[in-house]
Amino acid sequence: MAPCSMKTGTSEDEIQRDYRTYRAEKTYAVSEGKWYFEFELVSDGPMRVGWARVDCKPGSQLGSDEYSWAFDGFNTEKIHQNYRESYGQGRNLRIGDVIGCFLDVTNKSMSEYYRP
Hints:
Residues 1-116 form the B30.2/SPRY domain. It holds the Pfam family SPRY. By secondary structure, the protein is mainly β. It has a single domain, classed as SPRY domain (Jelly Rolls). Helices cover 6% and strands 40% of the residues. It contains one helix and nine strands; from the N terminus they run βαββββββββ. The protein has one helix at 12-18; strands at 4-6, 20-22, 34-40, 47-52, 68-72, 77-80, 83-86, 98-104, 109-115. The strands form two sheets. A six-stranded antiparallel sheet has the order 2-1-4-5-6-7, with no helix packed on it. The chain has a three-stranded antiparallel sheet with strand order 3-8-9, with no helix packed on it. β8 and β9 (109-115) form a beta hairpin. The longest helix has 7 residues, at 12-18. The protein starts with a strand and ends with a strand. Residues 1-16 have low confidence and may be disordered.
C-alpha cells in the first residue's frame, strides 16, 4: 500500500524524481478482504492517492505501472499503468480536506471520497 505521492517537478524526469511516496511496510500487505484509510490534507496541489502491490518499485509514481492504482482529486483522474481517465468535474482540494480510499480485494474494486 502506498498512500500518497506528490508532484513537485515540471519535466517528466523531474516529476518522476521529485515524487514523495509514503507507503506501509511490506509486513502490512493485504491479500483479501476490504481495507480503508483516510488522511487530512496538510498541503494542497496535485497528489495521487491509492494502492500498490508489494512488488511496486519504491519511488515509483502511484498509478505509473501495472502494480499500482491511483486517484488524483486535484486533476480528477484515475491512473493505472500511466493511463489517465477523467472521472468528473472535481474541484481543487484544499488544506483540511479529508481524503479516504477504499479497497475491496475480493471484488477487485477501489473507490475514494473527499470531504471538505
